[in-house]
Amino acid sequence: xxxxxxxxxxxxxxxxxxxxxxxxVKDVHKALGGNDNYNTVMTVMSRLAEKxxxxxxxxxxxxxxxxxxxxxxxxxxxxxxxxxxxxxTSVLVSHLIESADDLSxxxxxxxxxxxxxxxxxxx
Length: 123
Fold this sequence. Notes:
Layout: H1 6-16, H2 25-31, H3 38-50, E1 54-59, E2 62-67, H4 76-85, H5 89-99, H6 105-122
Antiparallel strand pairs: 1-2
Helix pairs in contact: 1-3, 2-3
């Protein structure tokens, strides 16, 4: 398996924690499929806490992590959009879709449903 880019691993960890539930490194490592080195996942989560993207609390011998409440500063995704794609979300989404080689028909249907839901909420 090809090594994952550091930023990609950060994004996947944040995605796993978006439910709002507290998770340990072990929980996140398992949710990632166990393919990444456990110590790498722990390091990335620790760095995300240092960057204030995650909050953590020591419970017994391990930390529990969760997403930090949004602040007035730019979110992680906003920083990625700004750095690599300018400010237009559509450019970022377009690039991700066009460069993805693992999109299934089900993935595309889910995206279409999200677009419909977003349109309704904007009306």
